[in-house]
């Protein structure tokens, strides 16, 4: 039985907690910590049989019973808490991004070096049924050599301007998932990219120094030409699709829907919108990533998404920002740290 | 060059004429006849290079130049003109049904007996790209032995009450196509059927002695269980689908549409309605059936839809009427003539 | 907190147990009983925090702590245990069918009469996301008056011959779900039906006195013409679809799949098969039906599928058997008890 | 009756000839010319009722009867024959591209200046049912302001190396259609583009100085971010799709297929491949573009695709070549002529 402490009980922290309690027999949540440990949270935890509820996450790190921690607190705390947790010899599952600055991620990597600890990063989309099916088919040679990769990733509504100001911007809070997905689907790193981006949805996003619509074309190390398109606002819901075209075929996915029901009438044939947002679309993937993390600990196997995956997506995100600023293609190798 | 005379220049007569003129190099329309040979029709024929325009179809039958006739006049004339045309040694393409009475069709069959003439019946749907693909796949064993056959056939709007009164009713003017389709798709005759029918759309249809909605379940001679569902009014357009389920798979078709365009918005994902009616959906099939008729003449090969196919659909239609009237399953062999 | 005892720990008993433990906060499993209470089951129960594991279900019925029981034992025990449970004033969730004999179901109905107890029957498909969406759209008038209803229900593989011999046959073990679905989708009872059935898959099924392929055409009390088609063996997996056609539109569903991935190559465009069988397809519906049962108890509301629903499906199934035996349409009112 | 002379009787010249003869009542083909006027072509023309068959296209230009010419000869002759035809006061339909050099297209534009002549360029895809539906929906505001445009355009097999050497390369023989489609779908010109291209299919194409796979990202003047992806070899057939995403919705198209038949079996659910190549996919569009050309002459209306459309696609193609060569984004305004 793997004993888990969860740091940060926001939306995603709660999801992981419930998934472990309800769906992962090999693990249990021993303690939780949140800077705002409200009565409501304590009551919720009690309902799950969790009694140790702290304000200070250090109580979790100091608890000898606890084998692993989940870092679900705000982004700026990911790297420092990772360092402390590693020091305390805890396995770590850290939400993405590890940090917005590369040198801080490098510190985490260095800290891990002589430790035999698992460190998984929360790129949950790798565990989505659709994308996993594509990755497996590509790996099994179903399409031969990949030539063209297309990822569509559009949110149903923009985040708050306050979030935009601290998130690291579109490339580091949203596209970062797509960078990881590109690497995952064709099993190759990015070599170079070129970004077009603009403010087409909300001028406030522009004033906050960010773009809300972007097209990122990339050359992968294995020769695949890739393109990601992003929008902060798809009125029809969360649009999450991928297409991989290769020398002997093509794989495509479409969006998940609440039901397959279709209505034919005088207006046409109407099917449902995609599931609204990531909580609806990716709920199963959160369960699956956690299950894999626990298995990696129990069986002492490599984690499916490691610290280098966390590092690389941030570096690609920085290259994307540079490309947009300088209006030119940028090689990933240009990003120094 | 096969020389054709066309008898009856209504909607379908015009379609056949233009198809022969424009798309069938091996045939030409030498003459046309219509009881109402208007100036407008004469002008239309002139534009197609057709100069012989008669009121009396007998002029066509008496023309030694003419090899074959198309009988596109009203249903009650099909059998008598067929008989005269056969006597005049013309090949015949006759629109369905040959007649509403079996003994009159038998006369046509008898007349054909010692003649080496082609006689094709206008079951155009056999030449539709979707149904042809299903038939071929079934014939090629793609689904093993057929077990269940489902045909959906719904018109976008009911015909006029005047038409309902003389058409022979739902089973002989509309379902007759589906009876032929059932025989075609699983390559077997009907053994027994049971009909449920009702007036759900327009009371006037009921007053005219017909139903407007029906469900016909059939047992085919090869053991396939089959069901046809009919409606005189599908608000979303012409609904023409088939499904054949067998021991090693299933074949399905969907409706044709004007375009593949789909609109995703806050209401959902909207695609187009099916093509409106038979002229839109089956235009290619009219061309194809005519091409096959001409080829059968040129190459002296059997026609793809013969006089017995015409007979059998009418007999099945009569069995359907009997089943509805008597509220019991009826064997095809019960229909005497 | 509703306290539950579960009687019969086979496949479905385990599913309900785990669903209550993991997903229904308002209920807990207090005790389980199974005639074969193995060490393996005891260990599994222990992992779920269930300590009271009995061989004799009467210990559950005698336990004052327990509010409700789930009857998941073999079909022949459903009615007698129901009676005992009602006598012991337990709410009951009973797997379908309540019994294969109508008079035994009547005893259960009578026993319930002066008790204020909930009695829900396990027609889980009503809670499936696709069928629920159709039912809601029909109820909301999206298609106007329903005219034609089509239900496709095909299993991926036949059950064992031993099961066929005791199950009550195709109509009472398999089609019973579809009878209930027909009543649910158009919110109307069945008036009359006519059955065609045959042995097309496995002669052993025929020797056991049953059919393996059937087409059931029905007239619903609200005038809808309905057809159900069944097969014991669809090589491509569990085929569970419905179509409701009405005066102002049509609703259709398609099968659920493991992923939306599609592979285009020289053979064509290949998408996945339907989910394999009911455990895969209907897992969410089992959770949902249980949640509704618990809510009905907690809020003292009517159950969504009551004892009369259980009764009616059995009566329809008996009418279906009669129709097949006698080769004629049978009115539901002909079934006496 | 518009009298047409057709110059160049290759594959596309024949298609236009037959379309005019069979499907466009307002026009007739008076004469044809081809540098290789074989007996086979003469016989084919005779079958269509065309008697004037020349080796020298100047005979057509000198024929006072003839109102309009179609230039379907090899690319390098398009501009010079256009100039001669304009001088001879013929309306012109010219296959794309007008020329591979901008200054030669400018000569044609200048020659047209004081003439009241129609000059249409053969961008047939604008007349495709799918793309036309998208254009109309975008124009009607169905998706609000366009933000992202994606065009997929992949051939089933590469052309001969000989063709690659003279065609102007991928961007001028293949992508040129997609550049025009981008301008058409969002009704805006291209401002800037960036190209990634590589030789992933056939090294011989690389040796001939071309690429066979490309990703072109563009900024349109109206702010839309656009991407075109091209491959010379899609093993599953001709892949021609578009997606336009905007502030209030998204439009997508899928490929046309020979039939809607689908086969479900143990391997999955198999539907047909896209239609093989442009002759299959775009046959209707060739008919439609010709019909529009004739209507423009008859009604003295603007042609739907004019000489400037022909010019602009070539300029964009040159910008694409420059971007690939120089590895940087290129503004369309950089292309001087």
TrEMBL record, chains A, B, C, D:
Record keyword Protease present: no
InterPro entries per UniProt: Gfo/Idh/MocA-like_OxRdtase_N (IPR000683), GFO_IDH_MocA-like_dom (IPR055170), Myo_inos_IolG (IPR030827), NAD(P)-bd_dom_sf (IPR036291)
A GO MF term: inositol 2-dehydrogenase (NAD+) activity
EC category: oxidoreductase
Superkingdom field: Bacteria
Limits of the Gfo/Idh/MocA-like oxidoreductase N-terminal domain: 2-123
Pfam families for this protein: GFO_IDH_MocA (PF01408), GFO_IDH_MocA_C3 (PF22725)
Record carries keyword Electron transport: no
Record keywords, A-Z: Oxidoreductase
Enzyme Commission number(s) of this protein: 1.1.1.18
Residues annotated as domain GFO/IDH/MocA-like oxidoreductase: 131-251
NCBIfam families named among the record's database cross-references: myo_inos_iolG (TIGR04380)
Entry's family note: Belongs to the Gfo/Idh/MocA family.
PANTHER family, per the entry: BINDING ROSSMANN FOLD OXIDOREDUCTASE, PUTATIVE (AFU_ORTHOLOGUE AFUA_2G10240)-RELATED, NAD(P)-BINDING ROSSMANN-FOLD SUPERFAMILY PROTEIN-RELATED
Protein name: Inositol 2-dehydrogenase
Organism: Vallitalea guaymasensis
